[in-house]
Amino acid sequence: MTTRVATIATQQTRAAIARRTAGVTFAARLAFEDVHHAYGDLPTLRGVTLAAEPGEVLCLLGPSGSGKTTLLRLAAGIEPLERGRLLLNDREIAGPQTNLPPERRGIGLMFQDFALFPHLTILDNVKFGLTALSSADAKREALAALDRVGMVHYAENYPHALSGGEQQRVALARALAPRPAVLLMDEPFSGLDSRLKDSVRAETLAILREARATAIVVTHDAEEAMRMGDRIALLKDGALVQVGTAEDLYHRPANLFAAGFFSEINVFDSVVSDGVAQTPLGPVAAKEFRHGSNVSIAIRLPGVEVTETPCGVSARIVARRFLGVEELVTVAVAGGENPIDARIRAGQLRGGVRDVSVTVNTRDILVFERNG
User: Fold this and answer.
1) What is the per-residue pLDDT across 294-346, written as a single tens digit (0 to 9) for each?
2) Which terminus of the chain is more exposed, N or C, with fewer CB under 10 A?
3) CA 48/CA 243 separation, integer angstroms
4) What is the pTM of this model?
C-alpha cells in the first residue's frame, strides 16, 4: 500500500512538473555590433559583428586566444564592453550609453567546469539562481528543469555522487531554470571523456531544442561545432573569419585557415599559368585566378587515393599508421619537397607494400590566393 501511494504521489508530481514545462523560454536574438575589446595592450576582439537568431544554436569556433570566451563574457556582463554594442531583441544591453548588470540581461551562462556547489543538494543547486521566486515556486521550477534533463530522481543527492555526464546535465538544468532569453555555454563538454561526449552532446542538443532556447556554444572542436550548430562562426585572432552552416564552411571555406580547421589537408604553393596550377600530385584547375597569381592548394587527406594499381603519380610509402577503420599513410613522390598524407580504408593496401600510385579526388581540392 505504501509503495502504491508513493508511486501515485510521484506520478502526480511529474504531471504537475510536465504542465509547467511547455514553453520554457522566449527565445531572443542576441547581436554583437562592431565589438572591440582588449586586455591591457593585447587586443582580443577586432570589430566582431555577429548575431544569434531566436531559437538558434550558434557555435563560436576557433583556436585558443581567438576571442570566443571573451565574447561570452561580454554578453553575460562579466566583462565590461569597451567599444561597440550588444543588442537583445533590438534593445541595447551594452553600449556607449548602456551597461545592464548581468542579472537584468536575461542571459544564462553555463560554466566550463559546471561550478556546482558541493555542499548543496542537486535541487538546491538548481534553485540557487531563482531568488526572485517564492520558495515553493523556485522548487517547482527547479524540479521542472531537472525533469527536463532526466535528473529529477537525483534531486536530493549531492554533486560528488554524480558522474561527469550527470553533473553536466544538472548544470544545464540550473542554467535553464530561470528561463533565460539566451543561454551561453563555454566549452561545456571539455571535461567529459571521449566515450561520454557524444551521448551527452546529443542529449544537450535535444534539451535545447525542446526548450526552444537561443544558445551560443563555445568550442575549439570543428566536429563538435558541426554536430551542434545551426550555424558556425569561425574566429581567429579576435576577428570573424567566416559564418555559415557546417556545409558552407566545409565545402566553401573562405581561406586556407578555414579549410585547415575543418579537415586535415596537404598544402602546396604554386603559380597559376593559363588557368592551371602545378602540384607534385598533378595539375589543378585554377581558372578563377589570373595568370601569374601565387596560390595555395589544399587537398584533403581523404581525397588522396592510394592504390597498388599503376595509375596517377608514382609514390613510395614512408609511413603507415593503423587507426581502426582507417589507415594514415604517408607517401613521398618525385618532385615533392614534403611527404604527403592520405587517409584510406584499413586493409586497402597489402602489408609490406611500398611502391604505390596516388590520384586525387577533385572534390577535395581547394585553391586559395596565397596568404588570402
Assistant:
1) 999 999 999 999 999 998 899 999 999 999 999 999 999 987 889 999 999 99
2) N
3) 11
4) 0.85
